[in-house]
C-alpha cells in the first residue's frame, strides 16, 4: 500500500528536515506538515502518556487535542490530505513523524486520531520508546553497552538526504548568476547561531571567521558563505563589514533577508566545508554530501554536553574535523594536517532507509 505521512513539527528547521527525510524513507515525498500552535502547552499530555500509555486515549479526544494544539502549515494541503485519507478507505499506510522533545507527545496523539504508526527521531523526553512503532536514534543518545530494542534503529548521523541532482542544478544556477570561474577553488562556510546547547562566547566565532578569511586567501580559495536565522546581529554586522565587501567572498547569503538554502549547492561547488559547532544538523548535512567538515569553535572551551559528545563520536570515525582541545588552538594550527577533500556522498541514508523499510515491510524506493 502507498504511504502517507504527517509531520508534527516544533518549527525548528533542523528537526523538520530530519522528519522530512524520514517521510522520504517511508515513500512520501510530500508529507503533511502540522505545527505546534504558539504557546501550545503539550507537557501535561507528555506526562500523562508517559505514565498511562495510549490505551486510555480515544479517537474523539485525540481529535480535540490535535485541533487545539496543532495547526496545518497550509489549510489547502490539510484539506487535500483529509480528502485523500477519506477516499482511500483503508488502502493507505499512515505514519506520524516527529523529531525532538516537544512534538513527541502530540505525535502519539495524532497517530491515535488517524490510526497511524508513530515514528520518532532522537529521544522523546519522558516518553517510553515502546509507545512508538519506531524510534530512529542517534548513537550518542543511547547508553553504552545497552541492547537495542526491536523498535529502535541507531544512526551515526542526524537524518538527512543529499539530493545530488537537485544540488547540482542549484550549483549550476549559482555559477551562472554569479559568474563563478570554472577553475576557481571554493570553500563553503555555514554559520549558525547560539543556542542553549551551545552558547557563543566572546568573539571566538569572529576570530575563527577572520582566520578563515586569511587562510582562504593564502590557499587561493574563495569563500561561499551563508548565515542562518539564528545568526546574532553582532555577527551579521561583522560579516557585512569584513566579508560582504571582500573580493575573497564572491557569494554571501544573509538568511534573515533571503529564504534560499544554498548549502546543497555549496556541497557540490566546494572542496571544503566549515561549519560553526552549534549545529549538529548542519555538520551531518555536510557529511551526508561526502564532505569532512571542519568545526568552527564558538567558545574558548570545548563544545559542551551531548553536542560535544556527538561531534567527538563523528571525529573518531574520521567523518568530521574536530577535537575537544581545538578550542585552545587557532584555526591555522588546527589545519596543519589538511582535512581530506570531498569524497562520494555518504551511504548512511541508504542504510537507514533499508532498515526502516524492513521494519515496516515496505518496498524501498
Q: H/E series, N to C?
A: EHEHHEHEHEEEHEHEHEHEHEHHH
CATH architecture of the largest domain: 3-Layer(aba) Sandwich
Number of strands: 12
- CATH structural class of the largest domain: Alpha Beta
Q: β content, as a range?
A: 15-25%
- The end-to-end span amounts to 13 Å
* Average residue-wise pLDDT: 92
Q: What is the radius of gyration?
A: 22 Å
Runs in which pLDDT lies below 50 for 5 or more consecutive residues are: none
Question: Total helix count?
Answer: 13
- Helix-and-strand structural type: alpha/beta
Major β-sheet annotation: 7 strands, mixed
The CATH topology annotation of the largest domain reads as Rossmann fold
Total domains: 2
**Biggest sheet, strands in spatial order?**
3-2-1-4-5-6-7
Silhouette: globular
Proportion in helices: 40-55%
Structure overview:
With 365 residues, the chain is an alpha/beta fold. It folds into two domains: 3-160 and 348-360, 3-Layer(aba) Sandwich (Rossmann fold); 164-334, Glycogen Phosphorylase B (Rossmann fold). The chain is built from 13 helices and twelve strands. The strands form two sheets. The chain has a seven-stranded mixed sheet, sandwiched between helices. The chain is globular and about 65 Å long. The model has no long low-confidence stretch (mean pLDDT 92).
Summarize the structure.
The protein is α/β, with parallel strands linked by helices.
Salient structural properties:
365 residues, alpha/beta, Rossmann fold, 2 domains, seven-stranded mixed β-sheet, five-stranded parallel β-sheet, 13 helices, globular
Amino acid at each position: 500500500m502507498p504511504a502517507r505521512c504527517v509531520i508534527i513539527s516544533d518549527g525548528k528547521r533542523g528537526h523538520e528536515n530530519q522528519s522530512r527525510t524520514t517521510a522520504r524513507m517511508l515513500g512520501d515525498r510530500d508529507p503533511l506538515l502540522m505545527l505546534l500552535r504558539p504557546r501550545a502547552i503539550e507537557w501535561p499530555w507528555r506526562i500523562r502518556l508517559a505514565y498511562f500509555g495510549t490505551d486510555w486515549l480515544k479517537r474523539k479526544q485525540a481529535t480535540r487535542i490535535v485541533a487545539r494544539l496543532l495547526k496545518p502549515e497550509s489549510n489547502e494541503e490539510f484539506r487535500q490530505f483529509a480528502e485523500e485519507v477519506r477516499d482511500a478507505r483503508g488502502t493507505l499506510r499512515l505514519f506520524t513523524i516527529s523529531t525532538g522533545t516537544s512534538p513527541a507527545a502530540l505525535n502519539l496523539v495524532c497517530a491515535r486520531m488517524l490510526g497511524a504508526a508513530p515514528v520518532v527521531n532522537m529521544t522523546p523526553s519522558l516518553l517510553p520508546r515502546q509507545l512508538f512503532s519506531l524510534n530512529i536514534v542517534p548513537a550518542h543518545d543511547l547508553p553504552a553497552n545497552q541492547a537495542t530494542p526491536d523498535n529502535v534503529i541507531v544512526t551515526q548521523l542526524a537524518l538527512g538526504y543529499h539530493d545530488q541532482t537537485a544540488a547540482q542544478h542549484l550549483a549550476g544556477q549559482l555559477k551562472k548568476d554569479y559568474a563563478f570561474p570554472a577553475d576557481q577553488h571554493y570553500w563553503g562556510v555555514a554559520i549558525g547561531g547560539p543556542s542553549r546547547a551551545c552558547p557563543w562566547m566572546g568573539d571566538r566565532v569572529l576570530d575563527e571567521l577572520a582566520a578563515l578569511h586569511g587562510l582562504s586567501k593564502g590557499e587561493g580559495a574563495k569563500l561561499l558563505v551563508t548565515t542562518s536565522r539564528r545568526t546574532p546581529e553582532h555577527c551579521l554586522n561583522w560579516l557585512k563589514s569584513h566579508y560582504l565587501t571582500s573580493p575573497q567572498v564572491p557569494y554571501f547569503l544573509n538568511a534573515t533577508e533571503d529564504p534560499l538554502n544554498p548549502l546543497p549547492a555549496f556541497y557540490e561547488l566546494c572542496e571544503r566545508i566549515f561549519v560553526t559547532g552549534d549545529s549538529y544538523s548542519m555538520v551531518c548535512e555536510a557529511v551526508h554530501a561526502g564532505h569532512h567538515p571542519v568545526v568552527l569553535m564558538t567558545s574558548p572551551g570545548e563544545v559542551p554536553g551531548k553536542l560535544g559528545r556527538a561531534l567527538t563520536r563523528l571525529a573518531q570515525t574520521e567523518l568530521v574535523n574536530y577535537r575537544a582541545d581545538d578550542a585552545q588552538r587557532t584555526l591555522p594550527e588546527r589545519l596543519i594536517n589538511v582535512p581530506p577533500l570531498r569524497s562520494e556522498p555518504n551511504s548512511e541514508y541508504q542504510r537507514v532507509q533499508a532498515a526502516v523499510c524492513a521494519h515496516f515491510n515496505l518496498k524501498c524506493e
